[in-house]
Every structure is written in structure tokens, then in C-alpha cells.
Amino acid sequence: MRLFTALRFPGNTISALEDIVEKAKLEDPHARYVRPDQFHLTLDFIGETENLTGCEDALEEACLTYQERYGTPVELVFSQIGTFKSKGGAILWAGIKPNPSLSKLEKILREKLEERGFSLDTRPYKPHITLARKFTGSTAALKEEILLPEPVSLTQAALVWSHRVDGLLMYEDVKTIEFCQ
After folding, report:
1. Which of 20, 37, 66, 160 is the most exposed place for a label (fewest CB within 10 A)?
2. What total number of domains does the chain contain?
3. pLDDT recorded at residue 82
4. What is the pLDDT confidence band of residue 7, given thresholds at 50, 70 and 90?
């Protein structure tokens, strides 16, 4: 199974991100856009593993540890849209302002996964929401036309299975855990 951990969004945030995607389609109708029900903020990418139980246990322990230490929701404030270069074409993304609660949750989760022997990406964590792949449009034009989503408070983390169904990339929650009640 190809797994990662993530935060999912409520309906109003999904709608705001969907509005950005609709405007982006005017800039580049041929990009590969993420479907709204698939929007997420990745915490840690685990990759291919058969150790589902270890991933679930790490997520549970990380959420419990975060709740005991901090007990606060993760407050996300959207900051910008942009692109990164990728071998298959640019990735269009929505960025998040630096956030201590998000950093703390990601760090605890990373530690719990590594304690169980998972090898994770060593690059610095750069939180973002992927909106499209193979994007060739102008973000300058988009920045003038879009409204970023309102700030959002999140209280759950998910273990997500990444797989293809009829050629479409799907993200299916395997387990969701509260980290703030």
C-alpha cells in the first residue's frame, strides 16, 4: 500500500479551493486538476509499505501525544498560490502560512513513524495543497483573480491510501483520528 498522513478540509474550504481550480482551468484547461474530494494537506509521505498496523499505531500515538501536550486545533491560514517545477510539469499549489501547531503535529507524527522504522523524506516540510499537475498557465494572472480560503481550524489527522482506480489517482482515508477534542 502507498500511504501518507494528511489533514482533510471541511466543505467551505473545499469550495474555496475548487473556485481557485475553476479559475486555473481558464489559464490552462489541459492541466491535471485534483478533484475537490481529494484535496488534502500532506503531513508525512510514508510510501509503499505492508505495515498498515505500524502506520495506524504511529498516527494514533502521535495524535494522543499532540492532544496531551498542546490540545489545540491546527489553525491554517492560506498564504498564496504558486508552482514548483516537477519532471512531469509544474505543480500548482495553495500555500499555508508558517504555523507552530502544524509544525508540532508533523514533527510528532514524523518521530512516531521513524520510531517504527519508516524512512521518511528528509527535505524540510513545506505545507501546501496540490491543486493541479502539469500546469502551464500563469500564476500571476490567477493571483489577481482568486480569493484564498478563509482560515480553518482542523482537529483530525488521517492515514491515507494512494491508489489508482480506472486510471484516476484516488486518496482514500484508511483511518482518521482526533488530535483535539
Report:
1. 37
2. 1
3. 94
4. very high
